[in-house]
Amino acid sequence: MKNIEQATNLAQMMKKIGNLANKETVCVITNMDQPLGKAVGNSLEVIEAINFLKGNMQEDVKEVITTLGAYMLKLAGKGENIEENKKRILEQIQNGKAFDKCKQWIQKQGGDISYLENIEKWEKAKYILPVVATKSGYITSLDAQKVGEISMRLGAGRIKKEDSIDPRVGVILEKKIGDSVGKGQILAYVHANNDEIGKQEQENLQQIYEIGENKIQTKDILAII
Description:
Pyrimidine Nucleoside Phosphorylase, Chain A, domain 2, three-stranded antiparallel beta sheet, Aldehyde Oxidoreductase, domain 3, 9 strands, alpha+beta, single chain, four-stranded antiparallel beta sheet, 8 helices
């Protein structure tokens, strides 16, 4: 949804569908003005998820995951207090039980859990190109859709249905909205398997980053409906 009004209308419709099925339904509206987390791309996002389960959490991902999880626990009758539910989720991550459960889940499906235990086993893109800030200030805008389109053109998504997916390519964002940055600092990395396309998208990503003089705040959870 492009704005809060459209998202709210969709959420209310989904709640009505849930009510018709006699199921209590909660909708969480989240901010997508910028990508969630740092990684955009198939294996890059999986690696980020693995790191999250090992306790290395991006704050925006943590807020969304714990909020969704807390309401899931409530809806399942496992806890009425949302804040306490969030703490329980974080405890399961910090004590390693969440990661162990993930390994068990993958193993039951015939997956190779060594890729969870050692993320260095994942194949990497041939070219990892830094995107550098041209001036100092604060990140004021980072269009999520445009970042997604860059990742798609690198090969992480399909432009037409016949296209193949390259799991190794994508974008890693080192700076996001509200972060301070100095001229010459790295904003992001483009992971590419085609040098020419990689350099073009390196330039495109640099143009997507908007840097201003004043810090702005962003909120990841916009509403619970």
